[in-house]
C-alpha cells in the first residue's frame, strides 16, 4: 500500500473514531434557547422508540439522546439548542455524573407516558397552564372528563392532570361575584345535567365519585399532577365523602349540621386538620390556601426549590430539575399551602420562606404518586377570569413551566429498586 493510500485510510479511521454518537440537549440557563420545547423533543424521541437519558443536576437537568439526523432536524425545526457529542465526550460526562462526589445521576427514560388532562369539553386551552404548555411543547394528550373517569377509562393512561377544578360541588365558590353572569349560569346548568345523566341527584355527589375514581387510579399505580384549586378541592371531596358541605345555592338544600367534625382526614392525599370555609359568598374552600393571609409583595414573591440527593432521591430530584433554584411566584384560587396542614409523609419540594408556605409538594398513595403545585399560571402573576392567554413564545425558558414538564416526563423513567 502506497503512502497516499495509507494516509487516506488513516483519515477514514480517524473520522469514524470522532463520529458523533449522541446529542445533548443542555438545560442550563445560558445555553438552551427553548427549555420548554426541549422536553417535547425528548418526549418525541421516546415515542419514536429512541433511547433517552435524563442527566439529573448536570447543566440544569440536560437530556442525552442518540445522534440521528431526524432528531437533529426536529431540534432545528422547533428551535431547541443541542450539542453533538462523540463517544469519548459522552463517556467523560457519564463518568463525571457517576462519581460519588457529584450530586448527579443518569436516569434512563424508557417509554412515553400516555397523558390525560381532566378538562370539560369546550374549555379554552389557556384556562389551564398544563394544557397550554403541553400544546406549546408539542406533547400529545387526551382531554377527558367525568364520563370517561366514571366509566373506568383512566386505566388507559399513565399520567393525569387536574387544574382549576372544584370537586366539592360548589362551582368554584364563584357565587358571590359571578352568580348572574351567563358563563356561571351555563356552567352550573351543564354540571347539573351531567350529574343527572350519570345517575346522581347532586353535582357534589357526582364530583365526589369522580374524586374517588381518581384516587383509585393513583392507588393502582397512576401518577396525578394537580394545580390551583384542584389540589385542595380534591382532598376536601375525599375527606367529606358522604357529608353534605354544600349550601342551598349550590345543591338546593342546607348543609349538614356540624359537618366540620365529620371530615375524615385519613382519606385525603396531602392535607390534614384543615377547616372548611362555610360562607358561600367567600371565594375560598378552606384554610389550606394562604391567598388572603399572605403578605408577600409581588417583587419579592419567589419560592425556593429544595435540593435532594440525585443518587438517593431520584424522584424528587427529577421533579425539581431546573436552571434556577429560585422560581417566580404566581397566584391562583389556591395560591399557596399552609405548611402546618400538610401531612408528615408528604414531601415539600418548594417553599416561600418569607411566608412559611409550601408551593410544590409530592407524595405516594398506594402504588402511585401525586404532585400538587399551587397557583394558576407560572407566567401570569394574578390570573383573572377572562384574561387573555399566556403566550409561551415569550417565556420559552420559564422555570415554573419547567416544573410542570418535569412531572410530565417523570413517568417515563425506568423504575429502580430502592437502595435502602
Q: In CATH terms, what is the architecture of the largest domain?
A: 3-Layer(aba) Sandwich
Report mean pLDDT, rounded to a whole number: 91
Say which CATH homologous superfamily of the largest domain is assigned: Class I glutamine amidotransferase (GATase) domain
Principal-axis shape equals globular
Alpha-carbon Rg, integer: 24 Å
CATH structural fold name of the largest domain: Rossmann fold
- The arrangement of helices and strands along the chain is HEHEEHEHEEHEHEHHHEHHEHEEEEEH
The portion of residues assigned to helices is 25-40%
Protein name: Asparagine synthetase B
Organism: Flavobacterium faecale
Q: How would you summarize what this structure contains?
A:
32% of the residues lie in helices and 17% in strands. With 420 residues, the chain is an alpha+beta fold. β13 (347-352) and β14 form a beta hairpin.
Question: What does this entry look like structurally?
Answer:
- Helix content is 32%, strand content 17%.
- By secondary structure, the protein is an alpha+beta fold.
- It has two domains: 21-109, Alpha-Beta Plaits; 115-412, Rossmann fold (3-Layer(aba) Sandwich), CATH 3.40.50.
- It is globular.
- Residues 5-18 have low confidence and may be disordered.
Amino acid at each position: 500500500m502506497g503512502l497516499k493510500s495509507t494516509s487516506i485510510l488513516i483519515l477514514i479511521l480517524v473520522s469514524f473514531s470522532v463520529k458523533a454518537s449522541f446529542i445533548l440537549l443542555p438545560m442550563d440557563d445560558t445555553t438552551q434557547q427553548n427549555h420548554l420545547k426541549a422536553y417535547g423533543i425528548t418526549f418525541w424521541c421516546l415515542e419514536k422508540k429512541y433511547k433517552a437519558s435524563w442527566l439529573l443536576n448536570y447543566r440544569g437537568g440536560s437530556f442525552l439522546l442518540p445522534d440521528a439526523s431526524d432528531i437533529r432536524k426536529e431540534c432545528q425545526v422547533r428551535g431547541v439548542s443541542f450539542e453533538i457529542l462523540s463517544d469519548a465526550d459522552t463517556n467523560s460526562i457519564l463518568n463525571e455524573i457517576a462519581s460519588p462526589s457529584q450530586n448527579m445521576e443518569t436516569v434512563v427514560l424508557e417509554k412515553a407516558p400516555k397523558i390525560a388532562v381532566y378538562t370539560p369539553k369546550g374549555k379554552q386551552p389557556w384556562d389551564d397552564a398544563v394544557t397550554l404548555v403541553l400544546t406549546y411543547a408539542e406533547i400529545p394528550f387526551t382531554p377527558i372528563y367525568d364520563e370517561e373517569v366514571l366509566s373506568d377509562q383512566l386505566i388507559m393512561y399513565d399520567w393525569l392532570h387536574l387544574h382549576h377544578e372544584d370537586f366539592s360541588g360548589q362551582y368554584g365558590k364563584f357565587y358571590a361575584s359571578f352568580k348572574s353572569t351567563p358563563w356561571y349560569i351555563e356552567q352550573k346548568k351543564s354540571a347539573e345535567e351531567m350529574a343527572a345523566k350519570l345517575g346522581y341527584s347532586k353535582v357534589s355527589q357526582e364530583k365526589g365519585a369522580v374524586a374517588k375514581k381518581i384516587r383509585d387510579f393513583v392507588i393502582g399505580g397512576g401518577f396525578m399532577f394537580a394545580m390551583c384549586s384542584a389540589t385542595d378541592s380534591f382532598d376536601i371531596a375525599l375527606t367529606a365523602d358522604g357529608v353534605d358541605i354544600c349550601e342551598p345555592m349550590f345543591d338546593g338544600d342546607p348543609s349538614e349540621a356540624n359537618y366540620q367534625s365529620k371530615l375524615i382526614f385519613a382519606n385525603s392525599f396531602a392535607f390534614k386538620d384543615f377547616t372548611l370555609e362555610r360562607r358561600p359568598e367567600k371565594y375560598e374552600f378552606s384554610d389550606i390556601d394562604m391567598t388572603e393571609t399572605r403578605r408577600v409583595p409581588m417583587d419579592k414573591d419567589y419560592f425556593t426549590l429544595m435540593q435532594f440527593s440525585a443518587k438517593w432521591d431520584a424522584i424528587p430530584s427529577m421533579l425539581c430539575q431546573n436552571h434556577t433554584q429560585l422560581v417566580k411566584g404566581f397566584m391562583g384560587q389556591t395560591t399557596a399551602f399552609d405548611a402546618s396542614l400538610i401531612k408528615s409523609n408528604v414531601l415539600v419540594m418548594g417553599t416561600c420562606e418569607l411566608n412559611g408556605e409550601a408551593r410544590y409538594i409530592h407524595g405516594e398513595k398506594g402504588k402511585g404518586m401525586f404532585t400538587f403545585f399551587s397557583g394558576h399560571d407560572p407566567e401570569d402573576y394574578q390570573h383573572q377570569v377572562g384574561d387573555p392567554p399566556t403566550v409561551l413564545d415569550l417565556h420559552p425558558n420559564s422555570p415554573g413551566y419547567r416544573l410542570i414538564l418535569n412531572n410530565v416526563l417523570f413517568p417515563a423513567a425506568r423504575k429502580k429498586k430502592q437502595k435502602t
